[in-house]
């Protein structure tokens, strides 16, 4: 079974040397000194290594089971959930007035990575709750907040999101679940929802379902949709649990991965629901929740890849097979370790340079969310809105590929379930699909975000890259290895955006045929920018006589790898984009 | 459950319009007229669709089980195996003197694709037998051939290949299984082998294991290795089965996929074995078998992708979700089918253009094998030797990606096991690993095949591309859409080969750090050549008033897609290769 150790040193470096959080003018950031964040990360790392990671293969092997309407989670999940509650981890970045610790979202993300790496399926019970809390915080009445939030923040109760129905996933306009108004102001909710993560389980006293449904008078399509709170147990006025609501898990899905999480078919048979937010404005309320959920999924992309990388690195150092082509590296042994072979080294560097770059991008994104909420910074809000589909789509595509590379290093052993590498690949696969499949992320990016407010956010990104290059042009090391490739990538990105502007009006297909390529082109450019910033910070720390020179050299070498070997992908994506819709749409649907 | 229909029209087109088999001067090819090959493919297609494909999810769900040393295959496998035997399919391309039908290897490949698409795990029982037959044909004594081959050709007995041990996979020099010579000329084989596909099962009366082991006096490393025949039941002089040999399955592995195939730990406890081929020349004998096995695995790469593609195409046509950006395509329905969306179309074209191109490359490779064996054509032998790692490595990497794309089209439904898409992905994954992990294929290509005989085969490939471009330069349609991109790809491939020549002598790491990229660069160029040849054939057929104009137009559109959207990948691979070993090897092993 693969061991896991939290990458606290790297997270600390990003927080304090790259993002320089405690100097940033964001309310709550001043308290984030290295000692504080280090202590939090260390504690999270202990829980992850000692409790969560050992349960990861157990959850995969056992899965959940449904018996007489009750869902049982795998052995050990209850105890681990109790430990998670006791540590107050769910409330880390939630408001103090509801029992949270009020730390920035940034710290929630930093800690979230550690928990996801250790046990993605387990962490979803908490992750979904966190998302539901966000929606109630944003749209709930004072009474709804008082009723639900303290119990959810403490994890006594958990939450879910109910969107998908058998005949509609992405296209929510087709949904059929009905909400009938009752004289007391509540609604009767009737319909079937599928793919509901953590829909039913034995970890909490109550489950608070947030359900999209159609109430009368809202019109056709998505306009008629409202969002409802449907608790598993109704809540009495004194906060105690009342009657069981008419909502139940009809089935558990057998999935490719994340077996430890219960993915349920949920049946609503006239269940009592309470409107959350405005009537017929459910989609807007849902999107509040979804944007941060998407960043959370983007985080899963690299967090699972990090865990897989750690395992593959350890295997590459231990497993003796073949001899280095440049002469025996381990002459007293029967063979050299795998890590001596250039193609193995390439596979390790691909993983390492992706994971560390994605971590930087995600933490930057989390800081933008803090600036949006804590500083009411409209530019930060526009930027994170633009970056959200990139963080979600690019990082989960690459994270899956990265896990596949980790598995490949194990050869035949990687294909055997016992080794745990198959689980990483199977778990990572879902992140490309849920919270909007990656094709939908690409569509959101190209069809909506790119041109939003006259393309202001996209322009701001280009200005930011340009400014960084200009400000650091004098540094010869940065200029050659980092700024030149970044400039080229940014040029490719601009050319692609220009192509869409010139052709998208005449033929929307011309833009959409290149949407996935644009998502990846943008993702690579973001990681190029991250690596340039990391390199700058590493050079500065080195010049200042930083405490850990080997760490700083490794940062520079890993960044150079990304710039030399990964960033040139922008040229390929641009070539595909500018080939236009022609090759993609030439074959009529019936000619396939 | 996904339906499967054999792509007989495409295979017929490749055999008769592209390869023009019945005109080719290869013994046995003249009989391969369209009626004959069509009848064979139709029969294979029926068996695949009616018997094998329905068993595919059954095998995945049930897997095999080991009880008291007996391995039970999934429900229905025995009946299907009986049907396979009765049809004489295993002997299709095997010598008539041992009960086969003596058809070319090319037909074995064409039919093999169909069986693998329908049920990869099931087909492995036959596939491994086929490989073992090849080794006995090439290295067996007349008596060994008479004893084993008729029963194996008829599938009364099956075969296995036993290479891997717990501590050694790729590096066979480390193997520990011992062969002690006995007075009667036989050997006692003792040791443990792992990952033995079809090592034990209930489909055949006897299992003929081919086992690599060390006999005394052979020296260190791979030089001391010999190959042995170790039957599960010893064979009496009259051909009847004798005593049970001391070989048994100690364990079944739990794997990510191919659950229907029994992957065994095999224990040899002084089992009786017979030397196959020369003493201490076991590696050579094994490679005979392995080269064709590798092409068979390359075939699996696109065959599973074909099955996954068919499912995703059918889903994209049926599933209603969203509206076409250019206006409703299905105005009377609640939504348009997925296939109207450009990004879905892209994912379908990626799959289609890969699968059809890989099919052409594999059948060309199979024809080269026929020319090697039937015409003793040394140039064909050199070419297929060069192409083998490309067919294996590139096609299985791309085939896996292609299956992942197919799964993605299903959204959340693709992640549910019931839909069958997860199985395609999990099954396809093994092809990147076994028969030499793809990193080993890249090493074989760059470290051995590229420079073999002074690079003669590589030069012949370049000449072939150049000749094709020159011969067809007058055709304007071909020139613009196909020859120009092919020329660029070939130029990139030459530049990469040149980089290795110039840098590989000084620093072998510089070549090996680019080995996987070279494999993919070469693979794309091969598929570019295939599409150019296919386009030429389609244009010729169209000019001649071919019977199925829609099919020919689809071929041209699909080829154009590959040239415009996939072939530019050669530039990215070249950029990575020419960045050299520096970025890859900069970080010392202990600095990771």
Description:
The structure is a homodimer of 592-residue chains. Chain A is α+β, with helices and mostly antiparallel strands and 592 residues long. Among the domains of chain A are: 8-139, Butyryl-Coa Dehydrogenase, subunit A, domain 1, CATH 1.10.540.10; 159-280, Butyryl-CoA Dehydrogenase, subunit A, domain 2 (Beta Barrel); 453-584. Helices cover 56% and strands 12% of the residues of chain A. Chain A has helices at 8-18, 34-62, 77-86, 105-118, 120-139, 142-153, 282-318, 342-374, 378-409, 421-431, 438-449, 456-471, 476-504, 508-512, 515-543, 549-566, 569-578, 582-585; strands at 65-67, 70-72, 157-162, 178-181, 187-197, 206-214, 225-231, 233-235, 241-244, 247-252, 263-275. In chain A, strands 3, 4, 5, 6, 7, 10 and 11 form a 7-stranded mixed sheet that branches. A two-stranded antiparallel sheet of chain A has the order 1-2. A two-stranded antiparallel sheet of chain A has the order 8-9. In chain A, a hairpin with a 5-residue loop joins strand 4 and strand 5 (187-197). Chain A is globular and about 80 Å long. The two termini of chain A are 45 Å apart. At the A-B interface, helix 8, helix 9, helix 10, helix 11 and helix 14 of A face helix 8, helix 9, helix 10, helix 11 and helix 14 of B.
